């Protein structure tokens, strides 16, 4: 801490002390998080580590000696700290004790060396002796020096008391600001926490919905494949049989046999059957019963956020 001649209120000291070195700031620099630290302290941290976590608000700042240099100075704090530093090295003021101060006044008059200064001229604001009363202070309002000193002491004491009251008011206001800053910081952390929580809930919900929808599409697709297979497989047999029978009958015809043999009868039967089937169907060939893959759009729901 600064010199022993200083008796700053604790709240004021708190505002002027760097949290890193716990001394009165030297060249205070303002970080992007708006908290202030000594340039030297920040440069030291920059040498150790590229990123710096603010001890007040935990905000992370990338630090290099250059960025520290470019950070703005906290000019108000700088001016105040300079005054304190200067005051700290100033020789201590030797304050007169009450008796010594009074002795200074109750001496003999400079003009009338044999007369003691016992009076005080209100108009000239100066001590006087009884001889002065008829000369330079003729017609001036006078009072005893004792009364004048007492009045002055009372007036000064009243001012000091008033000053101390003001200091107390300021200090409690400053302490309040500090508390407000702390609670704002807590509120910010809470807000961030609930945003992250809501985000994670939404992500989980979306992921669940995605999985369910993908599963559903897959199931329907399998059903469609199954339907296609059930339509195609018997048709393959029919086509095969028709082809084989056609070939065989054609071969027989080339051998010019007169009557229908079994194969020919079978061909007539199969062709008749297929022809009838095709004629019955609304389309030339039966279509498998397919399931449409209706998919609802995957949109996040906001109601959890809004509450
Ligand atoms: Zn410091
Ligand atoms: Zn900070
Ligand atoms: Zn005199
Ligand atoms: Zn006078």
From TrEMBL:
Residues 18-58 form the RING-type domain. The keyword Zinc applies. Keywords: Metal-binding, Zinc, Zinc-finger. Residues 104-145 form the B box-type domain. One of its GO terms (molecular function) is ubiquitin protein ligase activity. The keyword Zinc-finger applies. It comes from the Eukaryota. Residues 282-307 are annotated as: Disordered. SUPFAM superfamilies: B-box zinc-binding domain, RING/U-box. GO terms for cellular component: nucleoplasm. This is TRIM3 protein. The gene is TRIM3.
